[in-house]
Each structure stands twice: as C-alpha cells, then as structure tokens.
Amino acid sequence: MNYRALNPEDIQVFSEAISTFFERMTRQPAKVRTAYMLDQPEAIIWNDFNGVIHVSGGFRGTVCFSAPRGLLLEVLSAMGETEESPGNFLDVAGEIANILSGRARRHFGEALDIAPPVSCERDGTEIAKVAAGPAFAIPHTWGPYEANLVVHLDLIQRR
Hints:
This protein is of the alpha+beta class. It has a single domain (3-156), classed as Chemotaxis protein chec (3-Layer(aba) Sandwich). The protein has 3 helices and 9 strands. It has helices at 8-26, 69-78, 86-108, and strands spanning 3-5, 31-32, 36-37, 49-57, 59-67, 112-114, 118-121, 136-142, 145-156. Strands 1, 2, 3, 4, 5, 6, 7, 8 and 9 form a 9-stranded antiparallel beta sheet that branches. Helix 1 packs across helix 3 (86-108) and helix 2 crosses helix 3 (86-108). The radius of gyration is 15 Å and the shape is globular.
C-alpha cells in the first residue's frame, strides 16, 4: 500500500479539535499555536502525563496528548472529579487523546480505526514508530499550562 504524510489541512483538523475540546469541556478556549515538524528521533513530546492512541485502517501511526499535571487537574475539576491520583491523571490524558482522535475521525472517515488509549507518565513507556512520514507537534496553551498534541500518521493514498 502507498501512504502519504499529513498535509496542512490534515493538521488543521487536529488543531480545531483541540480548540473545540477545551471550549466545550471548560468554557475556556485553548490557544493553539502553529504546528511544527518534530526533528527528534522519537515521535512524542513527553510531559507529566501522556495519552497515546494507535490508529490503523486507512492510516498508520499514533496520536499523543501530552500535558502537565496542573492542566489535567483543572480538566478533572471541570469534569467534577475531585480525587487527585496518578490513575485519574492517566485516565484523563488517555481520554483527551481519545476524544481528539475521535473528532479527527469525523473528518477522515470510518477508515480511521482508533485503538483504546495507552496512558503513561513521563517517559513511562516506549511507543513504537509505525508511520514513516514526519511527526507534527501542535503546541497549545490553556490558562497558564502548555501541552502538546503530537500527530504521527501516514494516510493511505487513494488512486
């Protein structure tokens, strides 16, 4: 099969998903900055907690939401959760990655198969690189916190 790397329109889908998520969840929009291509060997930007979604179907690769503890604490609070535990931070990081991937699936279609999230603390697990194209980081701030969505996907080329 022939695959292609993400293009700017594809990246925009994920940027809009970030804005929509924070606006709907907390009524405070995230400020999404310009996406950039990662030039590091690993296709993840590690933060305190990370949620990784593996995708397949007409795609191959990963979508990773990486955020500091403070941001996740605020999101948990907005969800009505008061328990501050590593398990809750891991769950919400994975759930955010899942929600953002799900929003992208609406754009890309049913061929974007999304696996359940794998959540880990900083450098807590090794994520195999499946996509051949470049990984893109989409940095964003929400309140005083900075987080990243790293999208490392190849899309099957339709003929």
